[in-house]
Amino acid sequence: MRAFRARDYDIARRILRRSLRKDPQDAKAWALLGEVHWVLDRKRLAVRALRSATRLDSRDAYSFMRLGDILSELDGAAPRAIAAQQRATRLDPRLSGVWRLLAEAYEADGRTVRAVAAYRRHLLLERGDNMARVRLGNALARLGRLAQAEKELRGAARQDPRDPNAVFGLGEVYERGERFQAAERAFRKVVRMCPRDAYPRIKLAEVLERLGQRDQAAVQARAVVRIEPGWRRFVRSFLH
């Protein structure tokens, strides 16, 4: 549809609704209407349209994947998002992005072990997805599998040395493992990469405190307050 490709979504919506009044059994039109509603941030209308599409064409893996993706953004809908993504993986296990979206839905539902398995399946198909590798490493860390987490996060950091998320994840792995000097180096690197981001400085202050470097922790705490004045309560214990 030209209006959709031209990003004239209001016109696309009107054309699709008019078309569906003539032929309400057109699964492709329902699926495209769902995409339009999603772009326009009308998530519940997008869900209704995509449900219509999947009822009419129960073999459309992409519509199930998109339905699950939108459901994952709605409060309390994680189980339904998982069901839709699972259906998509059964219909087309090689569909680009489907295993990553399933993993994210599992994470939203607190099912970290299943999320790890889904991330691994995704990375077998899309090895270059660095953000998915970071998310896998973080999920492994939450499960206490620190050696595996470090391996994944180191791989992500090698693949994209400019990615602060991988380095920050490594810092958290080192902190969990009480390797505080390594954690300090990682968090300092993130601070250099993202000097206006307050949260890495909080993590750095925590590690410096554990290393007995209270003056240095206070320096980072004061920097946090300069960046985010409303965060003083989070760093009050470091200020002296």
Structure commentary:
The protein is built from 15 helices and no strands. Helix 4 runs antiparallel to helix 5.
Oligomerization status of the protein chains? single chain
Number of helices: 15
Helices and strands, in N-to-C order? HHHHHHHHHHHHHHH
Helix content: over 70%
Tally of extended strands? 0
Query: What's the gyration radius in Å?
Result: 22 Å
Report the sheet with the most strands, covering strand number, pairing sense and barrel closure: none
Segments where pLDDT lies below 50 for 5+ residues? none
Mean pLDDT, nearest integer? 94
- SS-based class: mainly alpha
Which geometry do the CA atoms define? elongated
Q: How much β-strand is present in the residues?
A: under 5%
Summary?
The protein has helices at residues 2-5, 9-22, 27-39, 43-56, 61-71, 78-91, 98-108, 112-125, 130-142, 146-159, 164-176, 180-193, 198-210, 214-227, 232-235. It is mainly α and 240 residues long.
Helix and strand arrangement:
Elements: H1 2-5, H2 9-22, H3 27-39, H4 43-56, H5 61-71, H6 78-91, H7 98-108, H8 112-125, H9 130-142, H10 146-159, H11 164-176, H12 180-193, H13 198-210, H14 214-227, H15 232-235
Helix pairs in contact: 2-3, 3-4, 3-5, 4-5, 5-6, 6-7, 7-8, 8-9, 9-10, 9-11, 10-11, 11-12, 12-13, 13-14
